[in-house]
Amino acid sequence: MGFQEGIRRHPVIAAVRNEEELKRLENSRPQVCFLLFGDINTLPSMVSQVRRMGKQVYLHLDLAQGFSNDRAALKYIHKEIKPDGVVSTRTHLVRNAREEGLFVIQRLFIPDTMSVETGKHLLKQSKADAVEVMPGIVPDWVYDELRRKRDLPIVAGGLLRQAGDVIQALQNGASAVSVSGGDLWNLDIQMKS
């Protein structure tokens, strides 16, 4: 199962920030998990643990400790830790990770109109497989603009605290949402076609 199939099955991605949330992940609905913590020593076992749950796991490179920002680290992550993919805000890491054969989600911060144009430029440079837009509550035209040249899956992340926030992000054009804490992981989402 790939990323798109995982978010199609359940469009809520579990953004896991600590050991307690990792334990709660096992009996939750999300098919996709973003690991937002861990280090070079703990990540191999955590990735294996998530895989045993039958879920996909994407490692947030910017938050993982003990790695440099070079190709050697990406090769190690790909061959030894074996996540389904990685997430990063850093365009050079996104591009290099793709070249190393990893599925890559580029995280973009969109505080204003100018950052939408910057984001489109960064996505063109990095050739990311998907994008995470932060904050998750942005107008629908932002999703349209980011998809204009390439139809990428877009994840809405950040500031999604209530079920209504999640539904609004999906109605505005997000393919999925990433939320932490677990309160929204099992949300039953019925989107109108």
Summarize the entry for a quick read.
The protein has 193 residues and is of the alpha/beta class. The protein contains 8 helices and 8 strands.
Describe the structure.
There is one protein chain. The chain has 193 residues and is of the alpha/beta class. The chain has eight helices and eight strands, in the order αβαβαβαβαβαβαβαβ. Strands 1-2-3-4-5-6-7-8 form an eight-stranded parallel β-barrel, surrounded by seven helices. Helix 5 packs parallel to helix 6. Keywords: Glycerol metabolism, RNA-binding, Transcription, Transcription regulation. Pfam families: G3P_antiterm (PF04309).
Return the average pLDDT rounded to an integer: 95
Q: Give the distance, in angstroms, between the N- and C-terminal Cα atoms.
A: 23 Å
Q: How large is the count of helical segments?
A: 8
The proportion of strand residues reads 15-25%
Strand order of the largest sheet: 1-2-3-4-5-6-7-8
As a percent range, the share of helical residues equals 25-40%
Question: Which geometry do the CA atoms define?
Answer: globular
How many strands, what sense, and barrel or not for the largest sheet? 8 strands, parallel, barrel
Radius of gyration: 16 Å
Structural class: alpha/beta
- What is the chain-wise order of helices and strands? HEHEHEHEHEHEHEHE
DSSP strand count: 8
Question: What are the low-pLDDT stretches, counting only 5+ consecutive residues below 50?
Answer: none
